[in-house]
Amino acid sequence: MESPRYGIDAPYVPAALGGAGVLALVAFAFTGLGTWLVIAVLFLVQAGLFLHTTLRGKFVVWEGLLDELHLAGGEEIVDLGCGRGAVLLAAAKRLPEGRAHGVDLWRSMDQSGNAESVTEHNAELLGVADRITLHTGDLVALPLPDGTLDVVVSSLAIHNISSAEGRATALDEALRVLKPGGRLVIADIKYAKRYASHLETTDAVDVSRRSLGPSFWFGGPWQAANLVTATKPDDAA
Question: Which residues of the chain fall short of a pLDDT of 70?
Answer without folding.
Answer: 109, 236-237
